[in-house]
Please model this.
Amino acid sequence: MINKQSNPKTQDKALLEAVAWNEQGLVPVIAQEVDSGDVLMMAWMNRDALMETLRLGEAVYWTRSRQKLWHKGEESGHTQKVKEIRLDCDGDTILLIVEQKDGIACHTGEHSCFFQKWDSSKLDWQKISKD
Model:
């Protein structure tokens, strides 16, 4: 669970400095569901999105198409409560362990954005059925 320190300025600096931001000041973020372990989605964060995620305890991303902060679920209600924030070994990818509200992460209404798999026998993408 996200735990705020008594000295947020020190915490903020250490957190932000550990991340290897790209040339646009962004870092890729993977959201993974805490209970199932399912990979739900990939998005981007900038420094403000990461700090807002810490402040709210819910995922906030940077939308490159709209060039603004995007609080996941702000329109759909399908918010992501952040349980853990992890950083990969190179510091260039963040993993959010989240509790996905209503079990829907994708804007299509699917549980995960990764609901298609390549079927080499049909040479086409197939929807993964949840049996």
